[in-house]
Amino acid sequence: MKGRKRISCKECRAGMQDIFDRVNLVSATDSESILKFMPREFAEHLEQCNECREFFETLADFAPALLEQLDQAVHDRLTPELAVILDRQRQPAVQQERNRAGQVIPAAIGKTVRWLFGPARRPVAALRWASLSLAGLLLVSGIGFRVYTSFRTNRTIEQEVDRIIEQIYQEPLLAGIETALIRTRADISDYVEDLSKANDRWLEEITPESLLD
Amino acid sequence: MRVRKRNKPAVHGRKAAAGALPNEESEDFILIRRFLRTGDPREFRTLVERHLPSIRRLLYTLFNGQREEMEDAEQEIVLSLFQRLKDFQFRSSFRTYFYRLARNRGIDFLRKKRSQDRTVARLRLDLWNRELPGPEEQVVHREETETLLAVFQTLPSKDRQLILMKDVDGFTLDEMADILDVPIGTVKSRLHRAREKLAKHIRGRR
């Protein structure tokens, strides 16, 4: 032992943990086999330190026992076999849940892709591609026709609006408006002149006596 | 140095816990591809049954052995896998994928259940009407209180999950980091702390 570096309990336990990380504790059949992985100074420390030895034995031994007890406990509780669970999945309520809206579209896409690219004889595959191409052509033509008709309607409306505006601003119509405006101005001046004359007449005729009456 | 020898553990559950070997991995992939191609539920059943023991152990750990919750969560997990399997990318191991799915679903289920329980407790406030466990459950509970499992159940849920994943189900630290979505160093330090706690609890019971 002389001349060899002695390791502390902390170092020994850290080293043991590293070993436990590397080995499969359930598969290792006895703790001696785990000890073989350890450097000699660890083994020597375990011989001298009861606490560390107990720590080593506890951790090297617990896994298989725990596995057995866990499996027994699970067995006591979970009696239904997987077949029962899978049968439950075929029940209508579960099926309904599976076919929610979010899954319908991907499922439909997947089905189409499988239908199109799935293994099939050459004539069947050709028929599938032809029908898909025809459907695509019809879709594109439909969209094109709809775009053309809406463009044509808009164009007709624009033309109608232009025509109406043009009619409104025709020359003779504007001339008539000007004449009407001039006439109106003359009528007002006549009215104002008459009003002024009547006012003068009233002022000339008035006397203090008449006001006292 | 004398180290206590232990008996060879029973074969029950050992195979599932031994970790995913490459050929097991490829068997999973074959089953998935067959199921996706044919839609045969038997393929799905075989695939799930290969990993069900470790998923059930996880559920026991998450739900503290509450039977009804374990059953409901298991059904939800299997249903979820059934719906999502078509999106599996074949890039990672199926075992890790399924375990991560089960853990996330289980935790969601637990949160939902806790929230419902709180609401119900607030509304009812009749502690005396609480349903007592049946005789069978009482026997099971009594038997388990003296075991290593009982000590294990006293640990916090996160510590239990780490120990279960590494030491019982044999996941590697890389796989655990993938499942838990944390760096590998974090997994390692948390796992070491969890083991120390477990060792302390076991010593305390002796």
Task: Describe the structure in your own words.
With 213 residues, chain A is mainly alpha-helical. Chain A has 3 domains: 69 residues, no CATH class; 50 residues; 36 residues. Chain A starts with 8 loop residues before the first helix and ends with a helix. Chain B has 2 domains: 115 residues, RNA polymerase sigma factor, region 2, helix turn helix motif (Rna Polymerase Sigma Factor, Chain: A, Orthogonal Bundle), CATH 1.10.1740; 74 residues, Arc Repressor Mutant, subunit A. The two termini of chain B are 22 Å apart. Chain B is built from 10 helices and no strands. The radius of gyration of chain B is 19 Å and the shape is globular. With 206 residues, chain B is an all-alpha fold. The interface between A and B is large, with 52 and 59 residues.
Secondary-structure map:
The complex is a heterodimer of chains A (213) and B (206).
Chain A: H1 9-22, H2 31-35, H3 40-48, H4 50-77, H5 82-89, H6 92-98, H7 101-117, H8 122-168, H9 171-205, H10 208-212
Chain B: H1 14-17, H2 22-38, H3 41-63, H4 67-84, H5 94-124, H6 135-145, H7 148-153, H8 157-168, H9 173-180, H10 184-205
The largest sheet of chain A is: none
**Total of helices of chain A:** 10
Cα radius of gyration of chain A in angstroms: 53 Å
Mean pLDDT of chain A: 76
The overall strand count of chain B is 0
- Separation of the first and last Cα atoms of chain B: 22 Å
E-strand count of chain A: 0
Which CATH class of the largest domain in chain B?
Answer: Mainly Alpha
The largest inter-chain interface, given as chain pair and residues per side, is: A-B, 52 and 59 residues
SS content category of chain A? mainly alpha
Annotated CATH topology of the largest domain in chain B: Rna Polymerase Sigma Factor, Chain: A
SSE pattern of chain A, N- to C-terminal: HHHHHHHHHH
N/C terminus separation of chain A:
152 Å
